[in-house]
């Protein structure tokens, strides 16, 4: 475990590594811009609502904010916390199981359980 | 330590056990701790049965009786059954997957010490004379109204112990996901490892609700919060929901490892591959998932409404399907096998009818209309003792006999083992079978005493007599353990002769690094496969002998737990004394300092050299016989 092993990449591996890194970097930057953009849109929505711009009722603004929030969480998890990469199947399974429980149990409370 | 015997003082040995991070030693610590609390809970049970022996008995007062039933239930579930199963998981699971230790040895030690000191905290209540008395479920209105510090001991003690359990569960998950030997795919894992995996996943999801519920209770009772006080806008029913969202998975956390132990036993002593292995795995996972979907069946009579009752009734009955799959697979594993009826096998054979009876009464209670009749009667008491004693405790006793040679290198006496089984098994049915009828005849559970002339006298006497038989069985087991330890006849790698999984291919007890070389797993029951192909050692190695990296022991986990133990007393007394709050802060600060010490001091462990390993191998080949 503790012993350090030096491993030299072949030129082909190095090429592949560089290409992959570039792709990853491009993805990260794109997603980051997208997230900034969505944040700006969200703030704009709220300001528009506060200024009383016609059409920006709270029935539009609140769902849109929730939608953007959900997308942001997804992007955060998949791009910046690497859930889209290989080897994350088990954490994903546990997270989704937790999401299912966290959704189903409160759903029971608000639908079928009287008190 | 190596197989070279060393003379050491008591202090050195104590220090060794308190600082150990070896999963095998921690497993044994769990067994000792759990065994101790099992005896405590057993004594409480004997006093309960003595009190109910005859009508109008006044052996104990009504208040003390409430203390006894509460502590019996709490102790047996949280401090006896779970830790003992944790002991087996800790000891056996890493061996079964070919690992050298669990993923986080330090956290493993912390988990044990938190369980143990939490359990001690709970039982210290006896010395204060203020004992939890609201039942092991501790329903909120009753537990909020309970005077004295009894329920405070319950809330804080379980909080500390529960934290340890959660850590243990996460540790097992990471170990199984990350540390399987080469070739050990998920579908080649022995069933005990699978059930450990699913039970650990259930701990991961079930214990946080308990933590939240206990914190609510702690805040309500000790810090003037009003989560459960309906007069202040709280909701007293929410405790029941939170408790059972945890509590129902909890009973499956108990029974699944028991299923795992029995699956190993059926396979070993029928000398057959487990019948329908993929179906067994699938059934285990399904039971684990469905366990979270049925909590409200404990609350049918609360008045959740017919829709909720109907849905939860159907969900409950659905669990009978994967459980039935398991029962039939076990039966078909035995069928046509070359059966040897050893003590563990005897427990396994006794388990099937006992557990099925408990399961059937469970489905009866799952029918919501019938549950209105059965609720809070002795029928319920009979049911859950049939599943927990008939399932979990039989598995624990079977596991003790099965794994004793692996853990201690000596074989428990088969004769005494069978005597234990007969006393315990007969006593168990004698105690609890009649309680079904007591329920039908109208005896409510948790009553301190009962009037003469209701037709309950004989049945209660039979029940108490059965409890005596069970106690005799346990005493015979203790005698057996003492005799075996004194005789100290060493056994070889595979004392049962038919071991199928990796733990049976290494010395008994294994060296502290478990495997001289990481094994290569070539299929389900890999040791059996190797032996069938003429490889008498049962192992094919995946690597040459190399230096092994091992973690250092540490006393810090013990100190972290002590800090929480002290903080618990501070929280409990902070309202009535001036020293309570400083003590609470001191205890937490103590824990944080211990955590900082752990974080700031790098401990990179050490290496066991090739030469030492080779020397151990040479020594081992001289001693021990099959």
Fold blueprint:
The complex is a heterodimer of chains A (115) and B (626).
Chain A: H1 11-51, H2 58-80, H3 89-111
Helix pairs in contact in A: 1-2
Chain B: H1 10-19, H2 23-51, H3 62-96, H4 105-128, H5 140-145, H6 150-178, H7 191-222, H8 237-270, H9 277-290, H10 306-318, H11 320-334, H12 343-366, H13 368-374, H14 378-408, H15 414-440, H16 457-487, H17 526-532, E1 548-550, H18 556-573, H19 580-600, E2 606-608, H20 610-622
Antiparallel strand pairs in B: 1-2
Helix pairs in contact in B: 2-3, 2-4, 2-16, 3-4, 3-6, 3-8, 3-14, 4-6, 4-18, 6-7, 6-18, 7-8, 7-9, 8-12, 8-14, 9-11, 12-14, 12-15, 14-15, 15-16, 18-19
**Which pair has the most extensive contact?**
A-B, 15 and 22 residues
CATH topology of chain B: Cytochrome C Oxidase, Chain A
The CATH C-level class name of chain B: Mainly Alpha
Mean pLDDT of chain B: 94
- Globally, the shape of chain A reads flat
The CATH architecture designation of chain B is Up-down Bundle
User: What is the tally of beta strands of chain B?
Assistant: 2
Tally of separate helices of chain A: 3
Please describe what this structure looks like.
The complex is a heterodimer of chains A (115) and B (626). Chain A has 115 residues and is an all-alpha fold. Chain A folds into two domains: 20-84; 86-115. Chain A has helices spanning 11-51, 58-80, 89-111. The longest helix of chain A has 41 residues, at 11-51. Chain A is flat and about 60 Å long. With 626 residues, chain B is mainly α. Chain B has a single domain, classed as Cytochrome C Oxidase, Chain A, CATH 1.20.210. A two-stranded antiparallel ribbon of chain B has the order 1-2. The radius of gyration of chain B is 24 Å and the shape is globular.
